Amino acid sequence: HEYEMFTMNENEDIKSMFSRFTNIINALQALDKTYSNSEMVRKILRCLPRSWMPKVTAIEEAKNLNVLPLQDLLGSLMTHELSMQKKDDDEEQENKKNKIVALKSCLIEDSEDDDDDEELALITQKFKKFLANKK
Question: Which CATH class for the 2-106 domain?
């Protein structure tokens, strides 16, 4: 039953998922229930979340799943996971940079607004003196 219901958990990495899968397979082998390599490869590909579907499709189209070793699949998935994490980290860094630039821009604008306010106050003061002198 665990084998049929097996899926990758949210926020679980490939290595942890594969370890859980291996434990289930080993327990089933102890009960004389075995699965072929291609059945296990297909099961792993089916258990991946929706965000992995482009990679799953690429593997299905590029590889012969009947002869693809489980360890090769694991290596391919771990490599893909690392590249996705790097991309996420790069995007996060870029977002932080953009926020810092936006903050600096806001601070500069606020500073310019303060300068404008001071200038306006000075002009108003001079204009009042000018009007007072005219009387």
Answer: mainly alpha
